[in-house]
Design a protein that fits this description.
The chain is mainly α and 198 residues long. Helix content is 79%, strand content 0%. The mean pLDDT is 96.
């Protein structure tokens, strides 16, 4: 698991000539970093008399960010596995018509898996952005810069996820599926933009 690696090990593997980890894994990592920053701001605020009217929000934020952070760590590995699935399908034999058809079906399935992974990352990132916005408004003012950093990470993570969605959608022949994913991603972008601008 990537989350169990040392930072130096992960960076070395990321910079190597292996196809994974790649941008999708980094998108999930960025989401996890954003969630951790939001949790930090809430942790630095909860229980302080100056902010006691929002203790329920801080406690909810800490719990939710812990949950999302764990999800992002899983997503880092899921994204890499999904891309590895595409590479595996590309290597399938294609000598006979039957092999060609089977390879085509496996590839389409793999591309969908490789699309679903960054969509899940984007969905989780949008959830983090909701709490990041609240920490900008109601978090410890001495840590507001960390809440803003979390928002910047959310923007970057979302955009990275969308790059991975777009490149995979271009290889998918199922128009109903591509339309459904496109509409969902547009909805998520609108929500994210609304969260970070309010």
């Amino acid at each position: 698991m990537f989350s169990e690696k040392k930072i130096s090990e992960f960076l070395n593997q990321l910079s190597s000539n292996t196809p994974t980890p790649g941008g999708g894994t980094v998108a999930a990592l960025s989401g996890g970093l954003a969630a951790s920053l939001v949790s930090m701001v809430a942790s630095l605020t909860v229980g302080r008399k100056k902010y006691e009217g929002y203790d329920a929000l801080y406690e909810e934020t800490i719990g939710k960010m812990k949950q999302l952070s764990e999800q992002f760590q899983d997503m880092m590995d899921e994204d890499a596995k999904a891309f590895d699935g595409v590479m595996k399908a590309l290597k399938l034999p294609k000598k006979t018509d039957e092999e060609k058809q089977q390879r085509k079906e496996k590839l389409q399935e793999a591309f969908k898996n490789a699309t679903n992974s960054p969509v899940k990352t984007a969905e989780a990132v949008v959830k983090v952005s909701e709490y990041a916005k609240e920490m900008v408004k109601h978090g410890n003012k001495n840590a507001v810069s960390d809440a803003y950093c979390a928002i910047e990470l959310c923007k970057a993570a979302f955009n990275m996820a969308m790059e991975n969605v777009d490149i995979n959608l271009g290889s998918i022949k199922d128009e109903a599926y591509t339309k459904k994913v496109t509409v969902r991603c547009e909805e998520l972008r609108e929500t994210l933009n609304r969260n970070i601008k309010e």
